[in-house]
Write a structure and sequence with these properties.
Layout (H helix, E strand, L loop, with lengths): L8 E4 L6 E2 L2 H10 L4 E4 L23 E4 L1 H4 L8 E4 L6 H11 L6 H16 L6 H14 L6 E2 L10 E2 L3 E5 L7 H12 L5 E2 L3 E5 L6 H17 L25 H6 L2 E5 L13 E3 L14 H12 L3 E3 L8 E5 L2
Parallel strand pairs: 1-3, 3-4
Antiparallel strand pairs: 2-7, 4-5, 6-8, 8-10, 9-10, 11-14, 12-13
Helix pairs in contact: 5-7, 6-7
Length: 329
Amino acid sequence: VTGQKPGAVFITSPTYHGICSNLTAISRVCHSFGVPLIVDEAHGAHLGFHPEMPSSALQQGADLAVQSTHKVLCSLTQSSMLHVSGDLVDRDRVSQCLQTLESSSPSYLLLASLDAATAQIGENPLTVFNSALFLAGEAKRLIKRIPGITMLDSSSFVNFRDIDPLRLTVGFWQLGLSGFEADDYLDRNHGIVAELVGTSSLTLAINLGTQMVDVQRLVSGLEALSAAHSSRILAKPERAACGIFTEVNMSMNPRDAFFANKQRVGIGESLGKVCGELICPYPPGIPVLIPGETISKTALDYLLVVKRNGAVITGASDPSLSSIVICDL
């Protein structure tokens, strides 16, 4: 709004694929206006601990950084940390806000695991990731040799200077495969579970527990996948749009839609109706439709493509997507 100062700037960096924003430049702009920078650094708790890694959000001037310590470091699942730096953010206010949200009975198993993860990194902060970085480099070197397999790297982006070296995003479009098909093959035949499955790619994570035998199994699985589909036509498969729907239209707030009377209609009859349920392809687990949202052709097309390619549809009462629950207005 004209004349009003923003309370903060919120950035996600790195992305799930490991792509890092230039937080140094962003924080410099924010601070020139006295505005704090908040960074969702869920997938970056390990950044800044080795010269071959991108700098962490705090090292680049962020005022608040939220890290999911369990994602790459070795704390237990659900454990995370909030880091505060600088004097633009009132620490007492942050503490008070947290007290309104947190349980009065925290899990000491989770808290102890955070302490253990901190101690593990603190013992050899500059060398603890040497093995993981070496293994990631070996994996990339070997995978790039496999016919029909592509790999995401920093050269793919002009405006992003850094990428997490421990994330491997592997593409299968040259083999005519979706990411869901590749994931199913690797899981079923080689016991390889991807970190993230996309419409035409898989993202895998190297961490402190990864060993050479894991890399060898991954490379062997990808080689077998390539060999099994080498005769397929080198054409891109049907792909869904990449994520940002510009025509999102909320007809009701989600609470009113949740409690509204509802009816089930065939998916062909749902276009333009008000969605009455949360429909979320997994992975990546991001809702495409939420209660109260007008159902658009873009959303329906996306859901049908990812479902056809093998995504699991969560939240929907009919995971087959032959029908959708709508608000009975």
